[in-house]
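pinning this so it doesn't scroll away 📌
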Amino acid sequence: MKKWQYYILSNSSKVLSASTTKESTRYNSFSLAIHTGDNIEKILENRDYFKNSFNKSLKFVTLKQVHSDKIINIDKYEIINGWVELPIEADGMVTTKRNIVLNILTADCLAIIAIDKRKNIIGAAHAGWRGTKLEISKKLIVNMQKLGAKIEDIKCAISPGICLNCYEVGQEVVDEFKDYPKSIKKKSNGKYLFDNRLVNIEQLISIGINKENIEIANFCTYCDNDKFFSYRKGDIKGRFVTYIGMQDVI
């Protein structure tokens, strides 16, 4: 199974963080989403293959992502084993528990993952343009702080997503991001392009995250569609996962 590692987060044997790709040595299309109408048996096989590449004590969690700004404290839920798909409409998770792996599914949107290694607190969020407008990146950090995370100790990573030059949007998106003029580029045909990644970086910095503590996966899901799923490129059903977890080191 091929992955893109986040070294700013995973420079410890107890921290797990990466994005999967659509490539796999076992399956032709390594999608991990069960909500897109894809073959459920195939997706469950992919999930089992994914889980089995880790320590068996790890528990994997996903949510029903709906482009909101809702962040869930996973500590309030009993996560038994395997892969748990919580029937909760939300787009972010935080936890202080070891051996819990938070997973965000995307195919053009961004995943934001974060950690305070001193306090053993992790978080993950899904940021399409709607979630970005609702400042979900900032709200993820706030929810980590509520659990005791310190802003100076939080490190973040931003997953592959569709880039400025490929993300054509309408006037409704332009109107929502007037406070971020550098994120909008007008095309010669009168339409617009949007830099979702830039806005999330600015939001993280505005809340106090040091720029040096933000790692960016500079892949475009549309341009690099051989590696990552892109909804706009035609991957209607495929989703890759960006994950973060802290495991007990034996």
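📌 and the second one:
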Amino acid sequence: MKIAIVGTGYVGLVTGTCFSEMGVDVTCIDIDQTKIDRLKQGEIPIYEPGLEDMVLRNQKAGRLHFDTDLTKCINDVTVVFSAVGTPPDEDGSADLRYVLDVARSVGKSMNNYTLVVTKSTVPVGTAQLVKATIQEELDKRGINIPFDVASNPEFLKEGAAIKDFMSPDRVVVGVESDRAKEELTKLYRPFLLNNFRVIFMDIPSAEMTKYAANAMLATRISFMNDIANLCDLVGADVNMVRKGIGSDSRIGTKFLYPGCGYGGSCFPKDVKALVKTAQKYGYEMKVLKAVEEVNEQQKELLFKKLKSYYKDNLKEKTIAIWGLSFKPETDDTREAPALILIDLLLKAGCKIKVFDPIAMYETKRKLALTNQEDNVYFASDMYDALVDVDALLLVTEWKEFRLPSWDVIKRTMKHSVIFDGRNIYDASELKMHDIEYYCIGAN
């Protein structure tokens, strides 16, 4: 079976590579010539554990191809996945220009039946816009070629995307014809050997499922952050509270960990987009507005704790930050709490030292856009970042940060105080080493 994937970003590249791993002949399309040239040379533009080896293996096997022109392969494939970006507009709604560009390209060049599957996260109703756009291009050509549209939202976690795709909890597919269902059933059949579920539904429900899933997870995070902040005020321990409520089978333990805010390409964008979709239909998503508000406040929490500790006098203080990516096992810094903290610390007159195992280059690139990179020291390792600092902020819970040498930390820091934004350390252990420790919801 031959398919095309348009868009070689995080979703498109992982999707195409994993399908090729299962024996599908895949052509990944992107208008960025430089990116395509790099991919042809085996250079992966994103960091994702296991992805590079899989790309190289399937290129060598002749199942994975890269190109800039969809028209070259459109008539050799039956299914075209649209995995282009849907960045938020200024008002928070999803920008669909790239999705509709793909639809136009298909309509202009298809000569045989084609199933166009939207993999990007898009608002409810987008599939009908895609369908209308393809039909408009066919009408301009004065021809009648059968086609279908479908929705197949992704549920990949950055840092675990390969495992999520190859062994998913579920695959959600929205279709409106038997033929589309047959084509996607055939495509996903190899995965059925692992006994996972393909859930077929109507297209609007599939489009909504993606947003609802991310919004629910974001809600759990903001809820626990709200509870943790209250625990700080009343003297409760949020870790005990989390265990207590997580043992309830109706609630469960996942996404109940308090922290310094969520980031990434999905949760912030999708919550905003769902709120805007509701506004479009005259409905107010009050819960999700609160979720977003809590998260934005939470990203400033470590700064506020640090500022309170130093009695509002942070000028000339040197602060270390461990972790820059929005989560471990990725170099993605989109909406990352660390970037908010860096900005706040610089405005307060602090000197900053940072370290991240993977996201140093991406952070430096982002800070260069705001002319801030020269004001930040990018350390060679985690301990280099601690030399003569007045405090350490733990922002991303990379594995190598979990069991540091407390003796080295004690000797290296000017003032031994740690603000833990992910609650990964044991307060009693740090007390034994005479290191001051502040976390979230358990002080």
